[in-house]
TrEMBL record:
InterPro entries per the UniProt record, alphabetical: ITPase-like_fam (IPR029001), Maf-like (IPR003697)
Annotated EC: 3.6.1.9
Localisation per UniProt entry: Cytoplasm
Top EC group: hydrolase
Any one Pfam family match given in the protein's UniProt record, by short name: Maf
Organism: Cryobacterium levicorallinum
GO biological process: one example: nucleotide metabolic process
List of catalytic residues: 81 (proton acceptor)
Chief location: cytoplasm
Reported function: Nucleoside triphosphate pyrophosphatase. May have a dual role in cell division arrest and in preventing the incorporation of modified nucleotides into cellular nucleic acids.
Entry protein name: Nucleoside triphosphate pyrophosphatase
Amino acid sequence: MRLYLASTSPARLALLRAAGIEPVLINPDVDEARVVAETEAAAGAALAPRDLVLLLARAKAEAAASVLLAEPLNGLLLGGDSVFVLDEVIYGKPHTAEAARERWERQRGRTGTLYSGHWLIELTAGVPSDAVGAVAVAEVTFADDLDDAELDAYIATGEPLYVAGAFTIDSLGAPFITSIVGDPSTVVGLSLPTLRRLVRGLGHEWPTLWNRPGALSL
């Protein structure tokens, strides 16, 4: 079973590869701000974190599916999205050093919640035939002894500028995280246990996705 990934995230790709899966990458090319604005305008209210990540995960998966319509492919297509919530404020990627610094000033020594949305579409001859979605949640606690020099050095690497919540647990930010309650892969941006449940929900077994040499030789 081939997995198509509607994402350009290096972290999601590395996570799947470590789990024995080499996905086919597709750039979903979604205007996230427009999708959210239109949905909130129609609803007359701001989206809750769970609804937000599931909406964007679905939008990415469906945009990628439209790219594949011209090809008679069979497989599973995954879209994902993540946000971090602290003090009931939703944070995506900070994009600037100033925004990243401001967020870390608020979150060090505290606990926030990471929401990761998943939308999985089954493709039959290139046409979507079924779909399922789910949201995974994990609580993240940050070190309370992170000093300004460490924080400045971390932000200077550029890493926190392009990840939800301005931190990682699988790279340079890992030493600044003291605990995670929930599935750790959720914080990376793709919950493997959640994806497995979705795969099984569409009638397939997880091992059928293994296609990397290391997994196949087990």
